[in-house]
Amino acid sequence: MRQQPKVEAQGGKAARVLYKPWGIVGSLVAALIARQVFTVVWTKVVPVDSDDPPKPLESEYSLGQVVLAATIQGAIFAVVKALFQRASARGFQRWTGEWPGD
C-alpha cells in the first residue's frame, strides 16, 4: 500500500509577511554556515598550499579547478540554505500555527 505524501498547511498573506524578516535572517545565517562548511570541504577535497578556493580571475588555477570549486560551493550553499529555510518554516509554523510558504 502506497503512502500519500504529506502536504503542508497553507498559510495566509499575514504569515508570509511576518515570516519575511525571519527568513532573511535565516538566509544570512545559512550563508555564513555554508561558507564555513565549504572551506572545510575544499581543504579536504583538494589539499593545496592555499586554504582559499580558486576564484575565476586567478590565472594560476586551471578552468577545471575553478569549475570544481564553484560546483562544490554551489551545491553546499543550496543544501544548507534549503535545510535552514525548511527548519525555519517549521519553527515559524510551531510558533504561529501557520505555514509561511505557498
**Biggest beta sheet summary:** none
List the helices and strands in order.
HH
Strand percent estimate:
under 5%
Q: Please report the distance between the alpha carbons of the first and last residues.
A: 29 Å
Share of residues in helices: 55-70%
Looking at the structure, what is the overall shape? elongated
- Low-confidence segments, ≥5 residues, pLDDT <50? none
Radius of gyration computed on alpha carbons: 19 Å
Count every beta strand, where a strand is a DSSP E run of 2 or more residues: 0
The class by helix and strand makeup works out as mainly alpha
Mean pLDDT: 83
The total of helices stands at: 2
List strands and helices in order, with pairings:
Layout lengths: L12 H33 L17 H34 L6
Give a quick precis of the structure.
This protein is mainly alpha-helical. It contains 2 helices and no strands.
Structural features, described:
The chain is mainly α. It is built from 2 helices and no strands. Helix 1 packs antiparallel against helix 2 (63-96). The protein is elongated, with a radius of gyration of 19 Å. It starts with 12 loop residues before the first helix and ends in a 6-residue tail after the last helix.
From the structure above, extract its key features.
mainly alpha, 102 residues, 2 helices
